[in-house]
Amino acid sequence: MLGIFPWFVLCLRFSLVLALGGLFLCWVLSIPNQRQLSLINRNMVVFYGSQTGTAEEFCGRLAKDAQRYGMSGMSADLEENDMSELPRLVEIDNSLAVFCMATYGEGDPTDNAQDFYDWMQETDEELNRVNFAVFGLGNKTYEHFNAMGKYTDKRLEELGGRRIYDLGMGDDDGNLEEDFVSWKEQFWPAVCEHFGVEATGDDTSIRQYELVFPTDINMNKVYTGEMGRLKSFETQKPPFDAKNPYLATVAVNRQLNQAGDRHLMHLELDISGSQIRYDSGDHVAVYPMNDVSIVNRIGQILDADLDTVISLNNLDEESNKKHPFPCPTTYRTALTHYLDITNPPRTNVLFELAQYATDPKDQDILRKMASASPEGKGLYQSWVLDAQRNILAVLEDMPSLHPAIDHLCELLPRLQARYYSIASSGKVYSNMVSICAVVVEFQTSTGRSFKGVATNWLKNKVVVTDNGHKATVPMYVRKSQFRLPFKASNPVVMIGLGTGIAPFMGFLQERGWMKEQGKDVGETILYFGCRHRNQDFMYQQELEEFEKVGVLTQLNVAFSRDQEEKVYVQHLLKKNNEHLWKLIHTDNAHIYICGDARNMARDVQNAFYDIAEEVGGLTHTQAVVYIKKLMTKGRYAQDVWS
Ligand code: NAP
């Protein structure tokens, strides 16, 4: 059993810190609400840099595992802790700092890891051999795969930290869950060896939260879907952000395509009076609601009264996270607003649920899928991931599985906001944020219909409901680096695929507005790729109008499926190679790419290498360096999603 940091040392340290002028200054200067690391009464702190909640979830799992190894673990938000105190963790006996670092966008830190990243870059503090390990969360389809995980791992070592176990690199394009489980399988033995501890007991289920039924319920104190402050949807107060979204009314919701079996949509969210400002290229985050029929069905299978008011309270009183989601609330609100019930559950959820299966065969299957054995991993891949079984499908297909609803609510991950590239210009439409999206719906191999949470919820938003109410959407704006050139006279080349046209609608509106202001606006070229002219040529009228009035100097469209051979944007790029090379090499053009990250972004980049080689006379290596340089200068920007 490892020793934990004794309280008397804490008190001693507190007075020591007060006595030391310099340290006292740093104490006073630290950002309010940030916890002093030296006050953490744990020997394993798992920090997360998380954007969509997965890194946070993994941290929680590692911290929970710690108990099985006789360690006291705690998961911690990088933003809520004073990370400049990291070197002081060594003062805690046998301490270990673990980092689950997600990489966001083009190799960037997540919002909550930004300050820590800046600190790592600037500091020359000696880490005093602080024990550390890093697990990175990334996606191989992006150029800067796991940049944050790699940087943190390297930098902590440079600063004098002691790596306890090798960097883990999760790939969301493959199987992130499997990567994490495999890393964890090796990580714990390394920890045991380093600290001379052993796994204690077996893999028993440990609850993190206790279920409490509040007495004297005052419904005014019960959360009904707010992200932070209670009643924040009734009394809206700026500034609006992730914890305080703005309830925008839906002013327009129209289908963009007349034909085809997909539903492409354009929405306009009214933000007047919100003080929200945005630039072309920014993203809008939307908090969706889960499908009511799935929520009801879960309640029915679990024989639960969904309107029961509950609170799940963290048994670890020192944790910053008091509840898994805003509490008190009802099961219905939790399942509708706060929990992800659409994506396939992770292996830890299956493991914990196994205890509730009355059929030993079901128990075995669930435990096997949660194990690191090749057979278990294969079964999880095929039965859960490939079949896109969500929690409801798991419950339906394992009739002996009957978990306690409060435990299920504790285990399911948080429902995350969805990000869309804003399809309008804040300069032209300061009171409106537009979204362009395709409704996600397909048949799974079990014959169920998989419906994307946010797009289906948005699709059903009617502008004015039968009772005269306006439909609303909780949203906030997230700044991006995807920006028009500072000088309007610089040419721009925009490459948009499918709904990846979105940010370019904003760019075009803004270039048109600048033209109207009498500014010298450079060439504005669009390459748009979609499936069929008569089905997916989104904003055709608007684009042709932009071309007619000269805002768009060239409109190139690749209809991939209108002929036998595929025609893609890169084929059109290559046809215009000489002109493009002149724009890039001589005229300082900025290139923008938006759409699917998996293949398109790489293929388009290859097309630019080819142009640099064929017209610019560069070798392949020189071409790669050339495009890299453009990226560094902000002249080759990508807004790609996978
Ligand atoms: P889509 O209709 O599936 O695809 C658009 C076009 O791209 C099709 O003609 C497709 O051709 C073509 N394409 C496929 N592979 C390609 C490749 N390697 N190189 C060049 N072209 C290729 O697109 P979508 O359904 O609208 O989705 C586009 C992507 O943009 C999605 O991943 C979406 O998440 C993302 N996105 C959305 C937003 C937003 O705000 N809504 C913003 C940014 C990005 P074929 O299918 O015929 O092969």
Give me the count of strands: 24
Q: What's the level 1 CATH class of the largest domain?
A: Alpha Beta
What's the average pLDDT?
A: 91
Write out the distinct hetero groups bound to the structure.
NADP nicotinamide-adenine-dinucleotide phosphate
Shape: globular
**By helix and strand content, what is the structural category?**
alpha/beta
Number of helices: 21
Whole-number tally of structural domains: 4
Residue stretches low in confidence (pLDDT < 50, at least 5 long) are 1-32
Task: State the helical fraction.
Answer: 25-40%
CATH architecture descriptor name of the largest domain:
3-Layer(aba) Sandwich
Strand fraction equals 15-25%
Main β-sheet description: 6 strands, mixed
* CATH-level-4 superfamily name of the largest domain: Flavodoxin domain
Description:
The protein has 642 residues and is an alpha/beta fold. The protein has four domains: 164 residues, Rossmann fold, CATH 3.40.50.360; 114 residues, Elongation Factor Tu (Ef-tu), domain 3 (Beta Barrel), CATH 2.40.30; 122 residues, NADPH-cytochrome p450 Reductase, Chain A, domain 3; 149 residues, Nucleotide-binding domain of ferredoxin-NADP reductase (FNR) module (Rossmann fold), CATH 3.40.50. The chain is built from 21 helices and 24 strands. 42% of the residues are buried. The N terminus is likely disordered. The site of NADP nicotinamide-adenine-dinucleotide phosphate has 28 residues, from strand 15, strand 16, strand 21, helix 18 and strand 23.
